[in-house]
Each structure stands twice: as C-alpha cells, then as structure tokens.
Amino acid sequence: LSEIKKIIKGCLAGDRRDQELLYRRHSAKLYAVCLQYSGNDEEARDILQEGFIKIFENLHHYKHEGSFEGWMRRITVNTALEKFRSRHNLYRVDDIDQIREPDSEPDNQDYSGLEANDLLGIIRELPPKYRVVFNLYAIEGYSHKEISKMVNISEGTSKSNLSRARVILQRRVGSYTGIKKRVANG
Amino acid sequence: MDERGANIDVVFRNGLKDYEVLPPPEVWDNIHPVVKTNLRPLLILRTAAAVAVLMSVSFLAYRLTREIPSEIINNVSALDVATIPAIIKHDPVVSVSENRKRNNLLLISRNDAVANSGTIFEPVADEVITSPDIALIQKSGSLSPENSRLLKGPNIPSVNLTQNTAFQTEDFTDLYIQDDNLKKNSERWSIAALATPTYNSSFNSGKDELSKQLDASEQNIVSYSGGVAFSFKVNRRFSVQSGLFYSSVGQMIDGINSFGGFQKYDNTKGDRNFEVLTSSGTIYTNNGDVFLLADGPAERISTSFTNDVFDPVKASLQYINNNLRQNFSYLELPVILRYKFVDKTVDLNLIGGLSYNLLVDNSVYTIVDGIKYSVGKTEGLNSVSISSSLGMGMEYNISDKLSLNLEPTFRYYINRFNQLTGSNVHPYSFGIFSGVSYKF
User: Fold this and answer.
1) How many beta-carbon pairs under 8 angstroms link A with B?
2) Which of B148, B161, B245, B294 could form a disulfide with B227 if both were Cys (CB 3.0 to 4.6 A apart)?
3) For chain A, how big is the Rg over CA atoms in Å?
C-alpha cells in the first residue's frame, strides 16, 4: 500500500518513471476492461489511452480511500461510456418503443472449458448497445437505475437490452462449447 | 431466474475477473507526452501563486519594518536640536531623514541670498518637522523671533529660532513645500467600482481533431465584467488590490437548429434528450420541450431522436433559432499587484496578478424574439479556475480623493476550461475597465 502511495506521489510530482511504473502495473488489467467495452482493438487502445490520461490528470482527487485499482477501473469504464455515447446513437427505436423481451433459453448449459479469452471474444461480438448494458450490469454490478442514468436510457430499455444480451450470449456460448468439445473429441 | 445471479452473468463475471491483456507498446508512447504537457500548467500555476504570495508578503514585511514607532516621533530628544540654527542659516533645503529618501522630501527652496550651499538639514527621526508646521511658516512669511514659536510644535518644541536673526521675510518669499507625498501616504486605502465589456476567445492546444473542428464553428460573443476593488498602498509605487468581480463569458454555436413544443412527443423524463459537442464541453438539454437538429454533421448531436426516428418539421414543431449560446458566469476574487511608474495628474500603473474564479452560472440558451429560451447546461466545466491578468492602469486624479480609472486588461485562464479529454481550451479575454476610485 505504501508503495502505491509512493508511486502516486511521484506521478503527482511529474516523475516520468513513476508514471510509467503505474502504467506498466495496471495497464494490462485495464486494457482487458477496454476490450470488453469495445468492438475493435483500435477503439480499445483509444479508451485505454484516454483513460490513463484522465487517471494521471485526476490523481490528486484520489484520497487513498478504497481500492486504487477500483478507482482506475471506474475511470476507464466511464471513458469507455463517453466514447460509446459519442460514437453510437443509442437505442434509437428501442428507447421509444419498448421492445418485447425475447424468450430466454434454458440456462442449464455446461460452460466448462471456456477460457477468459473465449469469453472476451464472445462478449465483444455483442451489438454495442447490448454489450454496454451487459458489462455494466453483469460485470460491474450496476443496477438498472444506475445504468439508465449512465447511458441515458430508461430502466425498461436497460432491462430489455440485458435480456437480449443474455440470450445472444447463451446461444454463442452454447455453440462455442459445442465446437470446442467436437474439436477435443476429434 | 435470479436477475443478478443469472448463470451466464456469473460465467462472464468470474471468467473475466482478473483477466489481463498486454496493450500494444504505442499506447504508452501516446500517453506520456500528453500527461507531461498537462502537468506543466499545474507547475506554472503553483510557481506563479508562490511568487505572488511571496511578493505580497515581502512588501508588507518591508513596509512594517519601516514604520517609525510613535514614541520616537514624539520624542523631543530625537531631534538634534543643537545643529538646527547653524544648518538652517546655510541650508536652502530642509529634509526629513533618509528613511523617506527623496520621496518624502520636505523641500524648502529659496533665494540664494540666504545661502549658497545646497546642504541638507536632516532631523534624526522621520516626520519630526511636519508639513502643517512648515505651512504655517510659509503663511507667516517670516521666521522672526515672534513667530519662531511656529516651530515649537509638539514635534520640535525645543527649537529656538531667536538665534537665527539672519532669517527675514524675504528669505521665504519663494518658500516651497512639497509635501504631497505625505498627504498621499495618509491615504493608503482606496475603493473602486470598475466595469467593462470584454472580448473573449480561447487558445485550444488540444490534439483532438474533433475539438479543433468544433472550435472553428463557434463564435465568441462580447461579454461583460464588473465589480468592486479595494486597494492598499504599500508604498508610493506599489499597491495590492483585491475585491469581488462578476464576469460573464460565452460563445455562440452555429448550425444547431432548435425547435420548441417537443414535450408532447417525448416519452422520457426529458433530461438529456440531446447532447451537443462543443469545444467548451458537452451541452446537454434539461428542457424537455426543446428539440435540436444539427445543420452539418449529424454526429455533433448525440440523441436517440435522430432524423430517421423523429422529424421536427413533420411534427410541426416551432422553429426557434439556428444557434445556441453558452454562458458561463464567474465570481472572481483577484489578487493584483499594481506598480505606479508615472505619478502625475494622470498616474500610470502596471497591473498584474491572479484571480480565483468560481463558476456560479452555467446556462445554454437560444434567443427567440429577443427572449432567452433555456436549452440546458454544459457539463465537464471546471467549477474553479484561475486566471492571470496583465494590464495598464490610467488614473486621472479629479481631486485628492477621487480618480477616474481606465484599465486595459488582458486575462488568460491558466487552468483548462473543461475536463474533456483531447481538449485543452484556455480562454482569454480583453477588456478596458473604467470606473471611479475613492481614496481614504
């Protein structure tokens, strides 16, 4: 803990080595977050870059209360949301006409054998609007009320998008595990 | 199904927990120069603040150390009385001690008939001979034994001019006393009311191409600033000024069409129906009745109500205007140092310092028939900013107490105007403050 405080202090003083050290220590984890929220690598790199700039610029706001990694993750997620809002016209029709939720498939599949890299690939194939809501709800743990404020949609739309995302993910995970099993069995 | 504990959610939550992917090396290469650049203003800001504080403290400390204790002023023994008669006999010039140097010189010039030399009479203590005493001498026109009591005031009670028989009325016919500086020193404080229209613009050194494009479509509008300033004269040249000012800055964003009457078509709560990118930050609507449509690139407005979803013309919304106006108002607390380099009827001052600005109003509106129509606010603005000022102050003294002021001033905002990534907007303004000041 004292070491991270020292690094933060160095960063605040403009020490290049401490800045780089902070980046080297946390960039891999945060880049994984960026990949979760982006549809392509270029967008993920942009999010990481802008996120770290914000982290460095706002380090003086960090009061050493709570997890520093969590604080950086929140900044990264917010940066991803900003990027998303600026690039996509969210929920155009869906927002106005509440679309009927799709039927969920029975969630009794075997997900064993799926690695983090597989999961990341599957989640990135989701349509952007579903990916954002799923990430915020299932991974970050935000409520629909919070998500509605964060991405400027109604709670109903958030629930609807989450439901759709789950259905798509279940289907893709199912087909993915099936393929992997077939490959494994020769 | 348990909403939060859905199986598929858990699979992804646990599967991606602590997952790491090494980013490409060029990401850090792009981050570092930006971070380094952004750290500089903070350093400059701190240095400037430290210099300003040090200078202010130094001048105050200097002044305090030069104050003469009252007991010395009233102490008769402080005056080297024994030397007075002989010196006065020869000296056309009477001055106070070196403490005042030439600034506070009590100068008595006279005909050479009295003396040829230009030596100086220097009492030990400052202000031993006060100007009223000398003024009485001047009025009497003589320093005969009868009115020699005039120099026997509380300051110099033991001076006996009966020995100075060489002094006659004619010796003082052109007696001149320059004691303006003493008068001025007694008026250390002044209060001024100043106001100006200001021209605002900004430097945008952000690398973001989008922010540069946005900047190009925005026009600066003339704003205003005004307030009350208090000034304390540290010495004849330097003054420290503070006060409270209110200033309003803003800009006009062209190409954003606004329509009224959207409320009946809006099924949401009405907040943030539209977001408009500007160089000063993102405008978001908080008026559910307003509908916005961009003239140019559609991506400038982020909304769920895009043209393919809702057509304001078909819906017969009321067209209002094709531009938006952003207004930002600040309460300013300046700390200004003034240096008077010309001290005449018209004084000239160099003015420089810092101002702490608190954002008190942030509004976006459009105008229809001369009436403001509220649209929303700009987000991402820094609520506190610091600006530096540099200017030239002209002060025309109407009387001893009253002056007219004219102060062309350039102001530059040291810290970033907003927190937008990629944008590095530093506004600046120019105004000619005018007003009246009163010394007391």
Assistant:
1) 133
2) B245
3) 19
